[in-house]
Amino acid sequence: MTVPSLTLSDSTTIPQFGLGVWQVPAQDAERVVGEALEIGYRHVDTAQMYGNEAGVGAALKSSGLARDDFYVTTKLNNGLHRLDDAKRSLRESLDRLGLDNVDLFLIHWPLPTRYDGDFVSTWQALVELQDEGLTTSIGVSNFQPAHLDRIVAETGVVPVVNQVEVHPYFGNEETRAATRRHGALVEGWSPLGQGGGELTDPVITAIASELGKSPAQVVLRWHLDRGDIVFPKSTHRERLQENFEVFDFALTSEQVAAISALDKGEAGRTGAHPDTMDWIPGA
Ligand SMILES: NC(=O)c1ccc[n+]([C@@H]2O[C@H](COP(=O)([O-])OP(=O)(O)OC[C@H]3O[C@@H](n4cnc5c(N)ncnc54)[C@H](OP(=O)(O)O)[C@@H]3O)[C@@H](O)[C@H]2O)c1
Asked: Which residue's CA is the closest to the ligand 1 atom numbered 34?
């Protein structure tokens, strides 16, 4: 299985597919990431908030893979948006990961109702961290179109990705379009809808039986065929394997359109709304 690479606006490349480790318990992270690397995954999406960066780092180290052969993203925790905190926190993440730099560092949430509504200086902190070489690329997560417009207008620096909730019941089309308009790529989080209703939806199960694939494989293929980056999470080796086997088939444009038509708009959103999300861990 060959995972395609996509070129980001800063001319670096990112594997279009990887492993997400939200809700992978710290004590399981080394095993899960290690199994994924054995299967062939080369891209891991973690976050300071997930509490499992050390396990991710341990798995990368014991894999023996060269630094250039894997791609790691981490994300700034919500309580650390001020310049000094943001800068210190990436150094601490690198210690936990056992790396000199990450490939991609993201602002996890814009938190427009916190920090006097100032997420622009947080973005500026990421620009400085990139200048210092602690992260190769910088991006954002959960940014609505207005948030993107503002950081680009006020800093002139475009994020390489916007990582936002996307799955068949929540297409998030307006934000996907705004992200692409800025020249950034979309990373779709909860690509399987967290293993919920989409995987038993009759439209998806019918396409899956036509193609001899599982519903999860069809949903992942839908994301890839739309050009988005995905990193489904599983703690089970057989599902890690199943999710990885999506590079030997494609959907027809009619199948892509039929799955896109399942979009329920706001009713399909499962996570917090970025305009009102204000949670700070431990606060
Ligand atoms: N930036 C953000 O704010 C944000 C928010 C949410 C997620 N994310 C990122 O996106 C990643 C993926 O999203 P997610 O973890 O929310 O959800 P997801 O990948 O859509 O779904 C994960 C769920 O689906 C199950 N599953 C996995 N493969 C399956 C398969 N082949 N068949 C049936 N069920 C399957 C998993 O169960 P088992 O583990 O038991 O197999 C788990 O319960 C996260 O890990 C994280 O890296 C980012």
From this structure: 195
